[in-house]
Amino acid sequence: MQSLYKTSHLLDTEHLSHKELNLIFDLARKFKNNDTLGTHRGTNVGFLFHEASTRTKGSFLIACKNLGINVLDLSPQNSSFVKGESLVDTAENLIALGVNLFVIRHNQSGIMNYLSEKIDVPIINGGDGMHAHPTQALLDAFTLIEHFGSIENKKVSIIGDIKHSRVARSNIHTLKTLGAEITVIGPKTFIPIGIEKMGVNISYSLDTILESDIIMALRIQKERQLSGLIPSFSDYASCYGIKEKHLTEIKSEAVIMHPGPVNRGIEISGKVADSKNSLILEQTTNGIFIRMAVISLLLEGNL
Amino acid sequence: MQSLYKTSHLLDTEHLSHKELNLIFDLARKFKNNDTLGTHRGTNVGFLFHEASTRTKGSFLIACKNLGINVLDLSPQNSSFVKGESLVDTAENLIALGVNLFVIRHNQSGIMNYLSEKIDVPIINGGDGMHAHPTQALLDAFTLIEHFGSIENKKVSIIGDIKHSRVARSNIHTLKTLGAEITVIGPKTFIPIGIEKMGVNISYSLDTILESDIIMALRIQKERQLSGLIPSFSDYASCYGIKEKHLTEIKSEAVIMHPGPVNRGIEISGKVADSKNSLILEQTTNGIFIRMAVISLLLEGNL
Amino acid sequence: MQSLYKTSHLLDTEHLSHKELNLIFDLARKFKNNDTLGTHRGTNVGFLFHEASTRTKGSFLIACKNLGINVLDLSPQNSSFVKGESLVDTAENLIALGVNLFVIRHNQSGIMNYLSEKIDVPIINGGDGMHAHPTQALLDAFTLIEHFGSIENKKVSIIGDIKHSRVARSNIHTLKTLGAEITVIGPKTFIPIGIEKMGVNISYSLDTILESDIIMALRIQKERQLSGLIPSFSDYASCYGIKEKHLTEIKSEAVIMHPGPVNRGIEISGKVADSKNSLILEQTTNGIFIRMAVISLLLEGNL
């Protein structure tokens, strides 16, 4: 994977083949079933989270602890490591300190692709700008395969701010690799021009979810600058929020997903989040096993 | 304990029977004597400290490490986990991540009682508003029993801002359960109306401590809004601060306690804090064993 | 060492004999070669970093983990431990919590000397004001001895803000103990009056490095108040920055060092930092082994 680089990394999902996806899912399944303990005692993983995160960070942290790995959290909020130093210098110094793998989150799209050309240890992208969030897409796909067996030809709706969503982008790549049929849904300001070139359908109406097998709501990034893109959060909720009434309208076997944290009452209502159709907590749980699998495979040079 | 709830929790000391107190103290004693190692390897404990703390947090941290427990510190200063999510959602997601028990501190009194109705894993209250701080009361009682054997009929003075003190409230419950006779001491603005209904005496003069076996000074919360309640800290110190001269006036076998951190020269003078009557450092040390005991008992379903 | 105090500490390098330096280096070498695993499982080390740090902190953290030591990071950014409490009270309470050794960084010069008179567990100075940074000096000397075998009579240039540098001060002590000949280089405002009494030469010109075996650039502390001392950073860089052209002018076997983090283009250029003469990453790596050695020796009472 990523043969462009000196070392294997997980920077996006675009370059992951169906076979590589299966490799990851098989190992995640083993971890989940406790078949394999996969210890990497003595290994040091460096966390560089340049954007706030704890769902993803907490999940990576437990994944590392389960594998017996030491975590060095050198995220800027915890540290001054990065001040006055380039990210490359920081990474090289951490390698000199014994770091064997990095998990990085950064608000600049593509920064890890640049970094990966400079250093020799694997990088896992924990989310970069609007570019990619590969482990989220992997855990979503893993959860769906666990639920449906296969998602070939399943109809997927992805609802929300597709334009600014790295989760959407990474999910589109894996879901297409796995043979699903994708429609992105949102107001025009949220649909990037040319998205159809990724092989997805476009809809501006939430009615599309009535035909879907998989309904994936994206988080509205309250903290991001959205002024002008939507009139208000309540307006968005009224047009694109999944509400209790939808539960009787969608296919009974349809599943509802959300990468979290959920803004209840905006993207989805509390009743929907807690309904039997919801896979939200399964997503969280599976995140640990997917991250254990990816870390293991990269450390062993098997990805 | 707390049969109101689906799972056992430690939310206050009000509902702890004498028998349950002994159960906790017996296990704490075993941990202190290294009789029992009580390992819970593979267990994940989530820390949610919504108020600054490190004495309590550090003590819980060492308790967890001694038990082989992984700690996930998702306190808001470290994390954005809670942003845009209710505490219930946060907790449910952490449970999905594998958290087996929570230690929570929060400035809202009673919030953990609400949370405990919603989730199925044990919660330990690390202090909530002006309501309760059960592990502090347990470690205080444990320290006293270790020192005196029994505290039945011992005279206890609790001095300070009784009104706003969760430490006072939790201590009153355990000390009464253990048969002690309690007097609360402070300026009128610090004594809550109706406190005598808890079965305690009231005094407005520090002279009361001359008859006491146990003298417990509370911390003046400098960071809280006290404007109007007392004229000044030095005024408080002059009327209610325990000073060197008291050491010759109090019973020679009387003990002096403080939950820490001590404002030396306000609640008690440096000489008093360091005197042979002081149990302050014993309190700190015992905190670890009490917390190990409570965590163990809750994880094993034995409380 | 430090027989002034009740317990051994590492507060500066001034009092370390050549024999004691060798003791430290020998153990560091063993750790580096994996000859000795030196486990201190069950030991608690308290971190009190009152100044931002992560290179040093990360290095101490890995050193502790390698030794099986629990780290309690009670640095003020993580904690409120210190609020309203003197450093002595904080330390005593941490000792009561089971802390066996402290690593402290503080902006007040000499504060640890004061603290060391009051408490009974070893303190390692992780940098105090403009006074000392002993583990940095030890890792620098270790790196040089590893490289050269001996540094007796080697010519060392230390370039930068000597006046405000604890790194310079600690290095001067160890390098002189090991027999090196030292010149400090910088603008007059950076050279403290009377520095020649430490047995060093003074130069105001970077040309001096052409004769040096060891060229040590200090970090310009951008975050410190430098107004007035130098006209601008670019001015400093043009007069005292080590640039690519110097690589052909200095002795071919000369080595270039920097305590990090490097301000590339100010103290040294990127080409110089990455050149074959640079020992910068070796310094980082060796920091772990030096810190393992110092922690081990102090815990065992052998220093």
Characteristics of this structure?
globular, alpha/beta, Rossmann fold, 303 residues, homotrimer, 9 strands
Question: Mean pLDDT of chain A, nearest integer?
Answer: 88
Provide the domain count of chain A.
2
Number of DSSP-assigned strands of chain A: 9
- Considering residues with a beta carbon less than 8 A from a beta carbon on another chain, report the largest interface and each chain's count: A-C, 21 and 26 residues
The top-level CATH class of the largest domain in chain A is Alpha Beta
What string, H for helix and E for strand, traces the elements of chain A in order? Answer: HEHEHEHEHEHEEEHHEHH
Describe the strand arrangement of the main beta sheet of chain A, using strand numbers: 7-6-5-8-9
Distance between the termini of chain A: 6 Å
In short:
3 copies of one chain form a homotrimer. With 303 residues, chain A is an alpha/beta fold.
Describe the overall structure.
3 copies of one chain form a homotrimer. Chain A has helices spanning 18-32, 55-66, 87-96, 111-116, 134-148, 166-177, 233-240, 246-249, 270-273, 280-299, and strands at residues 44-49, 70-73, 101-106, 123-128, 155-159, 181-185, 201-203, 214-217, 255-257. Chain A has 10 helices and 9 strands. Chain A has 2 domains: 4-132 and 285-299, Rossmann fold, CATH 3.40.50.1370; 134-279, Aspartate/ornithine carbamoyltransferase (Rossmann fold, 3-Layer(aba) Sandwich), CATH 3.40.50. Chain A is α/β, with parallel strands linked by helices and 303 residues long. The mean pLDDT of chain A is 88. The radius of gyration of chain A is 19 Å and the shape is globular. A 5-stranded parallel sheet of chain A has the order 7-6-5-8-9, covered by helices on one side. In chain A, strands 2-1-3-4 form a 4-stranded parallel sheet, with helices on both faces. Chains in contact: A-B, A-C, B-C. The A-C interface holds A 44, 70, 72, 74, 78-81, 83-86, 89-90, 92-98 and C 52-55, 57-59, 61-62, 65, 77-78, 222-223, 260-264, 273, 281-282, 284-285, 287-288.
